[in-house]
Amino acid sequence: MHSFNIAINCGSFLLPWNAVMLALGILVAVIVTEILVKKRGMYKDLALDACIVGIPCGIVGGRLFAALSGKITFASIFDLGVTGMNLPGAMLFAAIGILIYLTVKKLDRGVSLDVMMPGAFFGLAVGRWSDFFLCDGLGPVVGSGVPKFFPLATFTNAYFQDHATVAYAVFFLDFLVCLALGVTALVLLKKKLPAGRTARITAIVYLFAAFLIEWLRDGETRQIVFGEMRFNQLVLIAMLLAVVIAAVVRRNKPLAAEAPAAEPETAAPEPTEQPAQPQEEPATDAERTEERETPEA
Predict the structure, then answer these.
(1) pLDDT range class, residue 45, cuts 50, 70, 90
(2) Which pTM does this prediction carry?
């Protein structure tokens, strides 16, 4: 681990800056979600529970997909001393874990996901800066004669040897996209769209943008598997298709539900029984006499 990435050095205890940024991103996600949950009067433990479920699932998914992509070996999946995470895999497993949690708790998935999206994107925006300290998530090396200023370009691992090699900071584009989508999610929440639409819109935009950004990555992060297609892009495309299919199914559900509801409206209303009204008794003796004499006439 390079000294640049060390935040705290206490003998044998080393706290890297990338871990600090990831933890800070999680904290931001929880705080933002907690504020929105309280404002909307939702299940109070939603933010904390989603964090407790999502983080372990994300770690397992990130390590598993890192092994599948060849970034680490399968034998080192549970060896946290070996660095290597796959962000799309982490997001996929975290999303699956949270969806299962919402189903078990019988919470409205659409409403819950809508409320969690702003915090998730702001957390991702902060977490992307872990790549800055890891010198990862970079693009091609900046050639001579090209301005080398931050955040357009940032140093690589080779920079610490020659103090010259810098690369395009692709991770900074990730940061901008996540930040913009976090703000967009907040705006969409205020528009009171149908449940789940805010989550689907922002997820589709993010996955498509992440797919495009992958083309800019260079070096070990490319992990080419089919021609020029990268492993991460295959995962992102699969996730994008799943979200689009879910959006189409969700959009068609109300139409199917309205069809049977039309029958009761056309059916004739059932007659309701009217309680028998008791006949009023004559108020006087004269009226009683008239009632007895009327049939005889």
Answers:
(1) very high
(2) 0.79
